[in-house]
Design a protein that fits this description.
6% strand, three-stranded antiparallel beta sheet, 6 helices, mainly alpha, Arc Repressor Mutant, subunit A, 2 domains
């Protein structure tokens, strides 16, 4: 196996590194997904480490993150004892996994936080109590719309 990235592989990896940055994910997540996306055959952890020049810890953590939202799957390679990985190429599956792993927990945790904020405003003796209550109501509205919008938005991503 070639241990350096070809120019094509470098370009693809760079695309996914930039996407990972936009999504506030570690650089290694983008590097790994990009490498697996452009690889015609499954790769093991050692292959990924060598081609990308990243540590075993970064590789393991990156693969764990990618598996958690369904962007990478483990595949069986006859005669091999190591795990091999390949990229999931279906956008809907990846986005749905990302939303379920990264976004939904924050929205669900927001309900508890909103209740705490409402209680803080309720017991407040601040002169701006009405202003604060209005801002909390606005946040609740944003959260409600986000909860309604996510499933709707996912419907626009066509299954592949």
């Amino acid at each position: 196996m070639q241990t350096t990235l070809t120019e094509l592989e470098q370009e693809i990896v760079d695309i996914f590194v930039r996407m990972a940055g936009v999504l506030n994910l570690p650089r290694s997540v983008g590097e790994l997904y990009g490498l697996l996306f452009i690889s015609p055959s499954p790769l093991c952890i050692n292959d990924c480490m060598e081609k990308l020049g990243i540590s075993k810890g970064s590789t393991s953590q990156g693969l764990k993150i990618l598996r958690s939202f369904g962007a990478v799957k483990t595949v069986y390679v006859p005669g091999e004892r190591r795990d091999y990985f390949e990229a999931e190429s279906g956008l809907r599956k990846i986005v749905t996994g990302f939303v379920n792993e990264q976004i939904r927990p924050h929205l669900e945790g927001g309900n508890e936080r909103m209740g705490r904020l409402e209680e803080l405003v309720r017991v407040s003796d601040s002169e701006q109590k009405e202003f604060f209550a209005d801002r909390i109501d606005r946040l609740k509205g944003w959260q409600k719309r986000a909860n309604l919008l996510l499933p709707f938005a996912l419907n626009f991503i066509k299954p592949e």
